[in-house]
Amino acid sequence: xxxxxxxxxxxxxxxxxxxxxxxxxxxxxxxxxxxxxxxxxxxxxxxxxxxxxxxxxxxxxxxxxxxxxxxxxxxxxxxxxxxxxxxxxxxxxxxxxxxxxxxxxxxxxxxxxxxxxxxxxxxxxxxxxxxxxxxxxxxxxxxxxxxxxxxxxxxxxxxxxxxxxxxxxxxxxxxxxxxxxxxxxxxxxxxxxxxxxxxxxxxxxxxxxxxxxxxxxxxxxxxxxxxxxxxxxxxxxxxxxxxxxxxxxxxxxxxxxxxxxxxxxxxxxxxxxxxxxxxxxxxxxxxxxxxxxxxxxxxxxxxxxxxxxxxxxxxx
Length: 316
Description:
Blueprint: E1 7-9, H1 14-23, H2 28-33, E2 46-48, H3 49-63, H4 67-72, H5 77-80, H6 82-86, H7 94-108, E3 112-119, E4 122-129, H8 138-157, E5 165-167, E6 186-188, E7 194-197, H9 209-214, H10 216-227, H11 235-242, H12 246-255, H13 260-277, H14 282-288, H15 294-305, H16 309-313
Helix pairs in contact: 10-13, 11-12, 13-14
């Protein structure tokens, strides 16, 4: 995957393009407007993620169809990404698949994070995209992402399995008149992230203990780099994910001369500087680094780089 932080593989669009062709929806002229390659359907390219989302949003509006929802219901993991599907070939159950998902997800995309979490005593497979909810096409992307994870669960729980509860971060007014097939599923909208309820054992640990214990510091570093962009990321949250105590986690970091806050801020600073160099606005950068308040991000960035985000960006 190219070393940039704002891209999507064109393979992710293929299920949509197939759907457009089947439904007689004109998409090539719209793709040309967004300067996508002419052989978009046959080739493989890295595309600007915000352009990809805007492309889908434009077609949704012109066709008056809920594309993310309709395409999502039809997809398989192979359609999303052959590499994604092949990563789970050797998994025997959903718990093994989630361990694998946490490990491989950062290598397959750079703007979605996934994790398991207990919410009110129930396990959920959670997901959050990097983009602010105001970005065009956000709701379509979240529907598609939710169905992608549902497809993964069905590999191990059966083709007709449905979750009892689903959380969505998109507002409820964007999801009126859901299909009758969802009548048995409880939806909650306006949540801080998306999630689907899944059956896991009471003592499930998100990171495979053997892998964690084999190289604590490499595992910790990778997890912090992945999850530091979540607004609620703290030492207690990370300790729960890896099946450790906060004290043990902090001691492991101290062995390397680090604190949790230093490690988190280093990861956020690296993400922020990459985004700003790519001309992403300070507002959008703040959101994608885990800050819901721009002024808090500005203060943090100035502490890291001794200049404001705008001053830093003006150099590039």
